[in-house]
């Protein structure tokens, strides 16, 4: 892919950038540039470019604004001690975006083009990659939107893929502490044949009212059950889940309707290396409640790119509550093993890291 670059004539000053990078928060500040490439059936992917970051001009009839034909990815670039910059398994994000595009009837962006686009933006905005203190990173948000001006309901004949970037600190205010969960029993995030396995904006829109409930109940995050039986644990609004049992076995839900995370897949391998048996299977909400109460479940954690690995605390529902599991030892061990690879402090035995610059 040929990428043309127009540099911003209004770069963020060194002083302002230092201020932002000292305390970036999550998703608040954006780098000086963005990547774009456009697709039509006639041209395929064309006009790949890096431009100054700025608002898009969209016709009010643009398809994505009406029918939510949209997909996105979330990944990070990390600075290592020698000043080099790396991403984590970017081809997995690219492959998931291909799967999402198949579900949303969007054109497929080749894996190599996806990785090249992300790399090119990070290189141009290299000075926005925070140093590794406090596990800061540059959060990358590739996304694809239906940009045809047309109100008929059919796959858009003009599509735009973009990448934007945002320096990130901890996803949760207050750093690593157990997240409390609210079990929603009246909302689900996915159904059979639905979009649960795709990373598409609509899934997040549908999670918001449940998240609102969680917040009003004093909980940090919401946990969803399967849509068919309302019995099996799926995931949180933006994270996958793991359960550690007292015999050392680790279980992560497998239902066919969850967003299968790249962190989730990596934990399977890392925990295996740490000597644990990881099982992907269905796990019911009663097994969770009973397991914590009896002590059979010793730890629960959630994982995702933005949140990394976070211990799960208490679970509350309409009419009851179970406390946090007893331990967070393995959770913190797996977390450390993961971030050590990401920040280049441990040998990358799986070949997960991709050097950008
Ligand atoms: N599940 C949902 C709904 C998510 O939004 C995310 C975040 O990306 C994940 C799981 C975790 O996926 P990953 O580890 O690839 O970030
Ligand atoms: C991520 O972890 O990258 C996510 O997409 C979760 C959330 C910020 C949407």
Automatic annotation (TrEMBL):
<dbReference type="InterPro" id="IPR033939">
    <property type="entry name" value="BCAT_family"/>
</dbReference>
<dbReference type="InterPro" id="IPR001544">
    <property type="entry name" value="Aminotrans_IV"/>
</dbReference>
<feature type="modified residue" description="N6-(pyridoxal phosphate)lysine">
    <location>
        <position position="199"/>
    </location>
</feature>
<keyword id="KW-0663">Pyridoxal phosphate</keyword>
<comment type="pathway">
    <text>Amino-acid biosynthesis; L-valine biosynthesis; L-valine from pyruvate: step 4/4.</text>
</comment>
<dbReference type="GO" id="GO:0052654">
    <property type="term" value="F:L-leucine-2-oxoglutarate transaminase activity"/>
</dbReference>
<comment type="pathway">
    <text>Amino-acid biosynthesis; L-isoleucine biosynthesis; L-isoleucine from 2-oxobutanoate: step 4/4.</text>
</comment>
<dbReference type="InterPro" id="IPR036038">
    <property type="entry name" value="Aminotransferase-like"/>
</dbReference>
<protein>
    <recommendedName>
        <fullName>Branched-chain-amino-acid aminotransferase</fullName>
        <ecNumber>2.6.1.42</ecNumber>
    </recommendedName>
</protein>
<keyword id="KW-0100">Branched-chain amino acid biosynthesis</keyword>
<dbReference type="GO" id="GO:0052656">
    <property type="term" value="F:L-isoleucine-2-oxoglutarate transaminase activity"/>
</dbReference>
<dbReference type="InterPro" id="IPR043132">
    <property type="entry name" value="BCAT-like_C"/>
</dbReference>
<keyword id="KW-0808">Transferase</keyword>
<dbReference type="GO" id="GO:0009098">
    <property type="term" value="P:L-leucine biosynthetic process"/>
</dbReference>
<dbReference type="GO" id="GO:0052655">
    <property type="term" value="F:L-valine-2-oxoglutarate transaminase activity"/>
</dbReference>
<dbReference type="InterPro" id="IPR018300">
    <property type="entry name" value="Aminotrans_IV_CS"/>
</dbReference>
<dbReference type="GO" id="GO:0009097">
    <property type="term" value="P:isoleucine biosynthetic process"/>
</dbReference>
<dbReference type="InterPro" id="IPR005786">
    <property type="entry name" value="B_amino_transII"/>
</dbReference>
<dbReference type="Pfam" id="PF01063">
    <property type="entry name" value="Aminotran_4"/>
</dbReference>
<dbReference type="InterPro" id="IPR043131">
    <property type="entry name" value="BCAT-like_N"/>
</dbReference>
<comment type="similarity">
    <text>Belongs to the class-IV pyridoxal-phosphate-dependent aminotransferase family.</text>
</comment>
<keyword id="KW-0028">Amino-acid biosynthesis</keyword>
<keyword id="KW-0032">Aminotransferase</keyword>
<dbReference type="GO" id="GO:0009099">
    <property type="term" value="P:L-valine biosynthetic process"/>
</dbReference>
